Amino acid sequence: MRSRYAAYIVGNLDHIERTDAPEARAEFDRLDSERFVAEATWLDLKILRVVDGGPEDSTGQVEFTFRYEHRGQVHMQHELAYFCRQDGRWLYQRSAMNPKGEPARVAKPGRNDPCPCGSGRKYKKCCGAS
User: Fold this and answer.
1) Residues 6+ positions from 111 with CB-CB distance below 8 Å
2) Are 110 and 125 a contacting pair, CB within 8 Å?
3) Where are the alpha helices (DSSP H) in the chain?
4) pTM of the model
5) What is the residue extent of each domain of the chain?
6) How crowded is residue 122: how many other Cβ atoms within 10 Å of its Cβ?
7) Rounded CA gap, 67 and 125, in Å?
8) Tell me: the pLDDT tens digits for 51-94?
9) What's the rounded Cα separation, in Å, for the pair 129 and 117?
10) Which DSSP letter does residue 123 get?
11) pLDDT (tens digit, 9 = 90+) per residue, 14-60?
12) So what CATH class is 2-97?
């Protein structure tokens, strides 16, 4: 992931194409990328989460954000990128923009459980009273 970000910084689109899996290479628009790279100033990359991608894995995921300046405005992009290993090399397959995490699950206390407000009373006699 970091090598692909660095390639965008220096405009090395050959590296981007070399590290694309065939399905991603088919979607890659070199002319559009050349124009964008020439106009953008890359500000930072933050790796948020990595799933798999170790020496024994054949797939991996990298969740990241990056910031760039384009035409006088600073933008941030959040992605979850999917990679696969082919012939010993990691290749970019696809990414999901603005990935959503698992929703937070909040367990409602039972009627006879202690009230979560900390009063020491039962929930049904405190915050759970209707």
Assistant:
1) 122, 123, 124, 128
2) no
3) 2-10, 13-18, 22-27, 30-39
4) 0.74
5) 2-97
6) 16
7) 51
8) 999 999 999 999 999 999 999 999 999 999 999 999 999 999 99
9) 13
10) G
11) 999 999 999 999 999 999 999 999 999 999 999 999 999 999 999 99
12) alpha beta
For residue 8 the two structure tokens come to: 């965008």
Which residues face 58 on adjacent strands?
none
Q: Phi, psi (5° rounding) for residue 78? A: -120, 125
Residue 45: which of 16, 18, 61, 65 has the closest Cα? 65
Beta-strand ranges (E) seen in the chain are 40-52, 59-70, 73-86, 89-97
What single letter denotes the amino acid at residue 90?
W
Going by pLDDT thresholds of 50, 70 and 90, the confidence category of residue 130 is low
